[in-house]
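Teaching assistant's notes for section 4

Start the section by putting this record on the projector. Ask students to predict, before seeing the second block, whether 3-phospho-D-glycerate guanylyltransferase will look compact or extended. Collect guesses on the board.
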Amino acid sequence: MTVSIVIPVRPFAEGKTRLSPAMSPEQRAQFGESMFRHVFACAQAVGDTYVVTRCPAILALSARTIAETAYGLNPALEQAAAELDREKPILTISADLPLLAADDLRAMLALLDDVDVVAAPDRTHTGTNALLFRQPRLMPYVFGGASLEKHRSAALARGLHFTTCCREGLATDMDRPADLRFLRKAGAPWSRNRKGSTL
Ligand SMILES: Nc1nc2c(ncn2[C@@H]2O[C@H](COP(=O)(O)OP(=O)(O)OP(=O)(O)O)[C@@H](O)[C@H]2O)c(=O)[nH]1
Ligand SMILES: O=C(O)[C@H](O)COP(=O)(O)O
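Reveal the predicted structure now:
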C-alpha cells in the first residue's frame, strides 16, 4: 500500500521548549534536528514523505516539502492534507521520536485493513504521536493537550472505525526532561550511533 507521510516540524531554534530545564537552546536545536533526521529516514523507507514547516533551512533539507502558510501544528497539517493525493492514506508523525523504526510505521499501516483511523499514543496514553487516516481529511486534526481522546472522539462522531497502535518507537516522544532520562535508559541504537550527542 502506498502512503503519504507528513512530518510537521517547528523551526529547530523555536521548538522543544519544555526541555529547557535540561538543555541549552543550542542543545535543543541540535537534538531537534537529529531526531527529525532520524524520523525522516524511517518515513522515507515506508512512503512518500513530505515535510511541512515554516523554517527555510528545513525546507532546504527535504525533497518533498510544503511551506507552512497556516501557522501552527493543526493548521499546517490541514494545509498539507489539502495538497496531497486524495486516494492515498495519509500518516502524520511527530519529528521527536528517537526510538522510531520503519517497522513501527508499517505496523500502523497494517491496521488499515480493519479501520479508518489509527492513532499512536504517547507513553502516558494522553497525547498522539502519529495519526493515520485511510484518506486525507477524513476528520480534523486536534493535536494539543490530551489529544488522544480528542482524536478518538472526532473519529467516532463521524462513524469512523478507530484503533490505537501502541509501540515503544511510536510512544517515546521527547517533551520533558523525564523523557530524556527514559531515552538514556532505553539507550541503543539512538545514543550509540550519534557522535556528539547532547544526551
Ligand atoms: N509545522 C509545524 N509543526 C509544528 C508546530 N508546532 C509543533 N510542531 C511539530 O509537531 C510535533 C509535536 O510537537 P511538540 O512535541 O509539541 O514539539 P514542540 O512544539 O517543539 O515542543 P514544546 O516547545 O516543548 O511544546 C513536532 O514534530 C513539532 O516539530 C508548528 O507550529 N508548525
Ligand atoms: O498529542 C499531541 O497533541 C501532540 O503529541 C503534542 O502534544 P505533546 O507534545 O504535549 O505530547
